[in-house]
Amino acid sequence: MNFKISKTETEKQINEFFSDIKNKTSKEIKKIKKLAARKKIPLKEKRKLFCKKCLTPFSGKEKIRIKNRRKSTVCDNCEKVNKWKID
Ligand SMILES: [Zn+2]
User: How far is CA 3 from CA 6, 12, 38, 39, in A?
Assistant: First the structure.
C-alpha cells in the first residue's frame, strides 16, 4: 500500500495551515516546514508569517520597521529581528 500524498494535496494542506497561522504553535510550524521541504514546495510569502529563529507565528502586534526597501519585524517571543527584502 502506498500512503504517499500528492504534491497538490500537500500544497492544499499547507495553504490551509497558513490561513490559520496565528493559532498555530512553533512545533506545528516546524512540522509543516519539514513537509514543504520534503515535497519541495516553496513557502515564499508564507515564510514571512513566522519568526525565522523560534518559529512563533507573528500576531501582527510586532514592531515593524521599513527601511531601504527592507522590512524588519521584531519577534515578540525571542526578540530576533527578522528582515526581508520588499520587492
Ligand atoms: Zn522568534
Answer: 10, 17, 15, 14
Q: Of 70, 65, 76, 64, which is closest to residue 22 (Cα–Cα)?
A: 76
On whether the pTM is more than 0.85, the answer is yes
Query: Residue 10 has which C-alpha cell?
Result: 500537500
39 alpha carbon – ligand 1 mean position (Å): 25
Percent of residues, the chain, with pLDDT higher than 70: 97
User: Coil, helix or strand for 12?
Assistant: helix
Question: Rounded to the nearest whole angstrom, what is the distance from the C-alpha of residue 26 to the centroid of ligand 1?
Answer: 9
Cα(80) to ligand 1 centroid in Å equals 5
